[in-house]
Amino acid sequence: MAILLAFFAGGLIAVQAGINSQLGIMLRNPMFATVVAFVMSALVSSVAIAFMAPAWPTKSLIKTIPLFLWFGGVLSAVGVGLFYYLIPKMGVGSMMSFALTGQLLLSVLISHYGLFGLPQIAITPIKLAGIVSMIAGLILLNR
């Protein structure tokens, strides 16, 4: 089930990137589309939290969270803004193929070194073959 949900999530990202890049064109600035995307995301997330009724984090818990973990949204804003800027220039297929390859390469390195407190998972020869295959696919998709 998790694998199907992961494929579904990837499909949603491709669709939203295409839709929001068009919104950026129509608004004459991809950063306006980025703001709209994040406002809508905040609204939907807020409604989901209201229905889930989770326990709110305590002040003492919040104080223990490393400062750098609060800045993931900055990376999201830059990444999403770049998507909306580049898709009209490259096409959604090319942009997604480069973005996915970049995500794969960096995620393998993050896992290999156990960065950000994540589990450390070594790069194996099979994983290297997968990376090479992904890069070959990137080249073939963008010919």
Automatic annotation (TrEMBL):
The chain crosses the membrane at residues 33-55, 67-87, 93-115, 122-141. The keyword Transmembrane helix applies. Pfam families: DMT_YdcZ. Keywords: Membrane, Transmembrane, Transmembrane helix. One of its GO terms (cellular component) is plasma membrane. InterPro entries: YdcZ. PANTHER family: INNER MEMBRANE PROTEIN YDCZ. This is Transporter family-2 protein.
